[in-house]
Amino acid sequence: MTLDLAPFKALIKNGCGLVFETSNEANLVRVLHERLGALNLSPRLYLDHLRASDQEFRELVNRLTINETFFFREPEQLRFLVERIVPRLLSRRLRLAPVRILSVGCSSGEEIYSLVMALNEHHGEGIGARFTFAGCDIDGTILAKARRGCYSDFSFRGVERHWRERFFTSQDKSHCLHERIKQAVTFHEFNVVTDPIPTRFKGIDILLFRNVSIYFDPATRLEVLRRIASMLNEEGVLIVAASETLANDLGVLRLVEEEGLFYFINAARSEEAPSPVPLVASPPLFPIVEPHPTIGRDPAISFPLPVVDSPSLDAALQAARSDVSDGRFDQARRLVDEKRHDEARTRLDELLASDPGHVGASLLRAYLLIERREFAQAESVARMALASNPDSIDALLLLGVAAKWQKKSHEAIAWFKQAVYRAHHCWPAHYHLAELHRFGHEFERARHGYRVVLQLLSEGGGETGLNYLPPGLPLAEVRFLSAHQLEKMRAVGSSSGVMATHGP
Ligand SMILES: C[S@@+](CC[C@H](N)C(=O)[O-])C[C@H]1O[C@@H](n2cnc3c(N)ncnc32)[C@H](O)[C@@H]1O
């Protein structure tokens, strides 16, 4: 049965913000077929039913949401919250009102519980009086899991054992949170795009909104940011995932950078820097992050190209495969496009167990490792692939992205330059380069990069030079952000002269 997806897409976008493009459309088609089959309705009747029934709409959305999460995700952000932001908020309190913390798009609760555990380590058992914690999500099914508070090993990937041993009771392969941590959090069903904002979500001091806005288009994101601003206290803080920072810098909240990390403040766009807080005496809870290096300020500094080791090549990787269309690989790749990373990882592990020489599967697995910030392993796979094929754009891009995430900006620039040297049309590499140049205040280079990206995207953007990996950046988003950054730089240039030396 052929489905006209357009009216479904419009209904879903208006109802909850989720946007479906070519890359994740297959998921929508699969779920729609499931619901049509279960209710035995034609697409037209199902559309009517969806419009009339809030319950069915929620049912559909529950199946479409991507609930990927784990404990202590982006630990440097959490450390920063616990050691910097929270003490600042506590020191400003005139009365003994608790600091109010809300996770929007909390999924199964790992994010907000991580914060409860970390604050418990820092402030002891007294956190109940000093903080309130809440999580909300559109997906009622996943909230039930959050309330249960029991997790598999998979939720603890990359987490020090200490946390599990201290705050969980383990039986078989299930780890259940201690009651007192669980009791600290309340969970609520809430659609951040359309639901009226209840009083309990007003006057928030710290709002976590991580890995949710990636599924929205820029117009929805802007609207949601305005709603979030109305939920925050004055000087309240919004935390988004590091990769979402720029996409949320839409002029609603003030973007602040401190210690190489970004967050937003609900404040007038004054230039006043946040008052520094003395270092907390106790040892850091999380590994200290490397400060963001300042790149490109001195044109005399040129960074040598990263050296590719010539390791004893995994014989399997050497045998470059030609059957890219291998059914199992394609299936895994589709799962990645749909952001169903756990399932993709399982498929790739199966595929590599039976066919360890599948270069595409190794690289795609490395791509997933980078998403999980497991850089060392990912880099070693990419280097091996590169040693076997020095023109591998997939490997060069992976190495660039890994370096960028680890804030090794010079190294990242060198990898991306190699990628665009070999494949000029590789717009993801041009975009990363433009971003890195902008962070390094190399505005002319940044402008040039954004223009190249827009030019390549205006030609379709289908060609990237990548054989196995997705571009890693949504095309519409990159187009929007490139135009937005060019516009912003133009405005800064004309008002402050920052850009004046760089010419048009
Ligand atoms: C990828 S998870 C992010 C979980 C967690 N914040 C993290 O960063 O690990 C995204 C969550 O956003 C939720 N979500 C999507 N659209 C939403 C909406 N309109 N309102 C509230 N939650 C939404 C999904 O149900 C999903 O659980």
UniProtKB/TrEMBL annotation:
Enzyme Commission code: 2.1.1.-
The keyword S-adenosyl-L-methionine is annotated on this UniProt entry: yes
Gene Ontology MF annotations: methyltransferase activity
Record field: transmembrane: none
Gene3D superfamilies recorded: Tetratricopeptide repeat domain, Vaccinia Virus protein VP39
UniProt keyword Signal, yes or no: no
GO biological process, one term: methylation
Keywords: Methyltransferase, S-adenosyl-L-methionine, Transferase
Entries under PROSITE patterns matching the protein: CHER
Domain CheR-type methyltransferase: 1-269
Highest taxon in the source lineage: Bacteria
Pfam family, one: CheR
Protein name in the entry: Chemotaxis protein methyltransferase CheR
Organism ancestry: Bacteria, Pseudomonadati, Pseudomonadota, Magnetococcia, Magnetococcales
